[in-house]
Amino acid sequence: xxxxxxxxxxxxxxxxxxxxxxxxxxxxxxxxxxxxxxxxxxxxxxxxxxxxxxxxxxxxxxxxxxxxxxxxxxxxxxxxxxxxxxxxxxxxxxxxxxxxxxxxxxxxxxxxxxxxxxxxxxxxxxxxxxxxxxxxxxxxxxxxxxxxxxxxxxxxxxxxxxxxxxxxxx
Length: 170
Ligand code: NI
Hints:
It contains 3 helices and 7 strands; from the N terminus they run αβββββββαα. The protein has helices at residues 26-41, 126-139, 150-169; strands spanning 46-48, 58-61, 71-81, 85-92, 95-105, 107-113, 119-125. A hairpin with a 5-residue loop joins β6 (107-113) and β7 (119-125). Nickel (II) ion binds at residues 92-94, 134, 138.
């Protein structure tokens, strides 16, 4: 396994639309293992392939307290959404140390392929529902800060560019 470099906002590559995975093979399973290692290493609850500059529809998630319950979503689709909405703080490994509120469906039903290429469905609520919607946005080239006001987004851009510059100098 290998730790992958996570793109940081406002890197334009984060706005790439991912393609469906044609075949769940060893290459995809290696990508999944590397994404899981990178997500756990960065203390994240989810990671989309877009964030590691691979533009295929692959997501890994672990919202468990134990951090030992990895969930793999390949070619995910949301097949049902609750009318009820939730409004909660989100963060993102591509936008470190920034948290802000985003509106999402409170429950979603998801269909995806697992790491063996087998189709499965699950219902999600709470943090998992938010996480699935957040990660699926990444596959469409959308970062959560794009839900915020232009003013906030500009501030975040400035902050991220400064952070990257400071790290490069260090
Ligand atoms: Ni994210």
